[in-house]
Amino acid sequence: MANIKSAQKRILVINKKTARNRMIKSQLKTAIRRFEESLAAGNFEEAKTRLKLVEKKLHQAAAKGTIHKAKASRKVSRLATKLNKAI
Hints:
By secondary structure, this protein is an all-alpha fold.
């Protein structure tokens, strides 16, 4: 543990941010997995709605700084391409 008070505070803040980022990334992975499962099952209408949800979550994560803005856009683009190829 750090001895300096500001360093102790930074440790607490970093732990909170790490927990938040981990939670957001887990939600992203789950949303993407559900989209791909519905796509693999052939439920294209469900996949379209799930893609909208994934897009929303990705852009929210980018806005919070959890992932980079370009990474969010790239993932949305690739998932949309997957959906369009499957239809």
